[in-house]
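#struct-queue
[09:14] JT: dropping the first one here, sequence first, then the structure tokens:
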Amino acid sequence: MEHVTVHEGVTYADRPAGEMKLDLYLPERENPPLVVYVHGGGWIAETRANIPEPEQYAAEWGVAIASVSYRLQEAPDGSDVKEMYDPENPTPRGQFPDHFVDVKAAIRWLRAHADDYGYDAAAVAVWGASAGGHLALLAGVVDDVTDLGDAFADKVEQTVASDESGAVQAVVSWYGVADFTLTDDVEGIIPLLMGGSQSEYPDRYEQASPVTHVTPDSPPTLLMHGREDEVVDVEHSRRFFDALDEVAVDAIRYELHDLNHVWVESVEDIESERVGMELLAADPTHPQSVYEATHVETGGSPDPLVADLPPAGPEAIQRFLERTIE
């Protein structure tokens, strides 16, 4: 594997709750495009270390990779999600939309410091899994945090590298949450995020949903989801794909048959995302269905997002990135 330069624990924002940091992996390539990784963990757990082999994929794909921390959800005493809360996790905590505000701040900070580290500020993709998939999708379809919606107007502020754009040129989502209105829970992590149930705050649920913000200007998107996902139903990726297709934005969706969250067969087998790519790559013949939305201007010819449709896994992501941010 070629040499990759690693910058760990780089501070991109100083919040009242603490410093927000990122890790940056740079391949031996002049001015590579940038992939911003957003980890999962139910918006409340895990750290930016929850990423599949960033040095390996920075080298193999020829991209810079930044794995970013974001403020995790606080869990009040007596909360029914307390079992997800790790008091030893050093990541600062807050309340949604702090998670999204931080991801956007990291993107702007990375764009502002592109010349310092040597990657291409004009070619940025965001990739996330599960809760991180939600934040990645939202970062793709909402350019400015202040555009999230009036339900959160008093909760968002753009203070980090505010002169830079937070827009991205492509999105990769692994089993990301796309539509909060699919849930009617009155307890659990989503009501905690939204400050209450959907019946109490319908506007929050709608405006926090990436699918709400899809427009013809949304970036091309690669979606991968297990059909038997019991944590984030595959319907989330289906709805997001259909919304992109409806407004003529190119997208591709992989559905892996019989697989649950994090590419396992049973929720009891779920491990961290660090092994997610390894699980995908281990069985490239696993049954899967692929759906393409490729839109052609009048007189043009089709230009698919992923040439020859390799199995879901690192090669498919690499080809998508080559098509969208190279």
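[09:21] JT: and here's the second one, same format:
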Amino acid sequence: MVKLYGKDLTRHEAEALSGGLGHAAGVRSMVLDDGLERGIRMLEFRTGTGLRFTVLVDRAMDIADCEFAGQAIGWHSPSGFRHPGLHEYEGEGGLGWMRSFSGLMITCGLDHILFMYDAPADTYVYGPRQTASHSIHGRIGTIPAKLTGYGERWEGDRCFLWAEGVVSQGTVFGEHLELHRRIEAEVGTNDIRLHDRVVNRGFYKTPHMFCYHINVGHPVLEEGARYLAPVADVVWAAHADSYDRQGVGYRHLPGPQLDFHEQVWQHEMAADSAGEVPVALVNDRLGLGLMVTTRKDQFPCQYEWQNLQSGQYALGIEPATNHVLGNAAARERGEMTWLMHGDERRYDTTFAVLPDAAAIAGAEARIAAIAVQPDTDYPAPSGNHRPIGGRS
């Protein structure tokens, strides 16, 4: 059944109410046409519950806007949703990526994440290229996708909105990786389901690293918002040498700050019996939150990013394939994923809007049943970056 406007409807009943489902829900294509965004292809999804989100086809099919019942969830940064043709990957010493950094979700990878690094390029068998130069968080997030399809699909009396595309990251004498992305949202629900498949189309042994930079903004993020996660261990904090200087711990969020320096943690997350790791940011005052559920075997690591600077106010949930130690450490520790021709890795993630206090309570209970997070805002980092197994 499709749940619309408080009623459970069969497909026949839903179709009898209007000339098309689009009066209540649907996915449609449009093109942005002004300023830095001009020329970007975009898909708009509406599930009929008040959930609306947009997918930037020309920005790796990442999720830009996200709102529920008119309340924003996704983050808008000063950079805006910049057209990829304006992007300068190597600019500003590798920090040019920041000028295209905005939205609910930015994909990082496909062969590098985290800070800038010149990686050995010997596997590409090309003398003039001794190193592969990586800017922060990799190239994939500003590459346009080939849109292979979108629309609505009925399965009996259930209706699913969907889109698929392929993003290709390739060069001569270097990597040739593809991101195959499928996004789904069932009509009458508050969930966004993301299915990614990264494939090595090339014939060189190629490194693979992957991360989602999931950014929640105001009003979900405001003074009093809470970060909920099955934290088994606080592994690392970038600001550990001045841990409480800014007066912001990992659990409770303040309002926007002046002259705030970003804070980043890596948490070791526990998983439930199905191997899933749910993490949420919740606003009890509004009765609104967002929960992101990943798989521990796909994303063994997770970071928490706090950018609480006025005008840039955001909280980041970042599932990742590798420790925050970076590219060099992944190689040295034997934790880099190496893909041969035809090898692939899959990633399955659910974004769930928590629309009321009951949903928040349910999410909190689910998370606490997996692991009870530290009850202090400044838990001492253990430094224990657990070995990541199963890599090839």
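[09:30] RK: nice, looked through the second one.
[09:31] RK: The longest strand covers residues 158-170.
[09:31] JT: good to know. The mean pLDDT is 97.
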